[in-house]
Design goal:
Helix content is 66%, strand content 2%. The protein has 16 helices and 2 strands.
Length: 282
C-alpha cells in the first residue's frame, strides 16, 4: 500500500508539473482508473491547490454608491485593479457613477490588466477594508484578462453609457477601442434580440454578405437569421455558401465586424431591444 501511495505521490507531482499539458478531466480519468474514484480524487486534490479567494469579495455586500465613494480618492490604477475583480454587474454600476474625467483613465487600465502578485492584491484589499469600515458602519500572481473583464463590465452597464466609453477609448487609443468593441458584442448576443430590426438589416444585405456572416457561426445564429428571411432567400443564401473561395476568410471577418458594429449602434440608440429581460424597466 505504501508503495502505491509513493507511486501516487510521484504521479500527483507529475500531474502538477504537466498541468499545462494535461487537461483536468484527462488527469482525473487517469487517477480514477489507477486508484479508484475516492483515492484518485484525494491525490488530485493534493496536486491541484484550491483556487484563491478574491480578496475584494467583501465589497460584494456594498452598494455601487458605497464602492464609488470608496474609490473616489484612489488612483486610476488602483480603481482599475479593484473594479476588475468585482462582479461585472457591480463594476458597471460603480463605473457609471465615476466622474467622466476619471473614467477613461480607469477603463484603459482595466483593459490592460494582466498578472498582479497576490501580495499586492492582499495589501490593497487590506487597506480598502480599513477604509470601508467608516462607510459600512503567497506567492503566485493572479492573472486577469483585462479586455474580457472590461467588456463584461460594459455589457452589464447602460448601452448608451457603454457606447460613450467605447467611443472615448477609440478616440484616445484606436487599437484599444477596436479590441473592446470586438469583445463587447458577439453573434451569440444577437440571439436574444427582437426580430424586426434584424429583418430590416438583412433586407439591406446581399445573399453573399449574409452567407459570409453565417460562415462558421453557430447553428442557433443561423436559425435566427433564417427565421428573418423568406424560404426563397434562404435557398439563395445556402447556394451562395457553396461558392466561397480563398478570399472568403478575410471577407467573413469584415462581414462579422460590420454587422456587429451595426448591432452595437442599434443597441446604444435603443432601436434594438433584447427579449431576455435585459431591457425591462427597472
Amino acid at each position: 500500500m505504501k508503495g502505491a501511495e509513493n507511486h501516487a505521490g510521484k504521479a500527483a507531482g507529475a500531474a502538477g508539473t504537466l498541468g499545462g499539458f494535461i487537461k483536468e478531466g484527462q488527469a482525473r480519468r487517469l487517477f480514477y482508473a489507477a486508484f479508484g474514484p475516492e483515492k484518485g480524487e484525494e491525490f488530485i486534490s493534493r496536486a491541484a491547490p484550491a483556487p484563491r479567494e478574491n480578496p475584494f469579495g467583501f465589497l460584494d455586500d456594498f452598494s455601487s454608491g458605497q464602492v464609488a465613494l470608496l474609490l473616489r480618492e484612489e488612483t486610476p490604477a488602483a480603481a482599475a485593479l479593484i473594479l476588475s475583480r468585482l462582479s461585472s454587474k457591480l463594476s458597471a454600476a460603480v463605473l457609471a457613477q465615476i466622474p467622466a474625467g476619471r473614467k477613461s483613465g480607469i477603463v484603459r487600465r482595466i483593459a490592460r490588466q494582466g498578472q498582479v502578485s497576490s501580495d499586492v492584491l492582499e495589501r490593497a484589499a487590506s487597506a480598502l477594508r480599513e477604509k470601508a469600515r467608516g462607510i459600512s458602519g503567497g506567492g503566485e500572481g493572479v492573472r486577469v484578462d483585462g479586455m474580457k473583464t472590461l467588456a463584461a463590465i460594459l455589457k452589464n452597464g447602460d448601452c448608451s453609457f457603454s457606447g460613450r466609453i467605447v467611443d472615448e477609448l477609440e478616440e484616445e487609443d484606436p487599437g484599444l477601442g477596436r479590441d473592446i468593441k470586438e469583445r463587447l458584442y458577439t453573434l451569440e448576443d444577437v440571439l436574444g434580440a427582437a426580430g424586426r430590426p434584424l429583418e430590416e438589416k438583412l433586407g439591406t444585405m446581399t445573399e453573399r454578405e449574409i452567407a459570409l456572416l453565417l460562415r462558421g457561426a453557430s447553428s442557433l445564429f443561423a436559425e435566427k437569421v433564417y427565421s428573418c428571411v423568406s424560404r426563397r432567400r434562404k435557398a439563395l443564401i445556402e447556394e451562395e455558401s457553396g461558392h466561397f473561395d480563398a478570399a472568403a476568410k478575410k471577407e467573413t471577418g469584415r462581414a462579422v465586424r460590420d454587422f456587429l458594429d451595426w448591432f452595437r449602434r442599434q443597441r446604444e440608440e435603443g432601436r434594438i431591444l433584447m427579449l431576455d429581460g435585459k431591457d425591462a424597466p427597472q
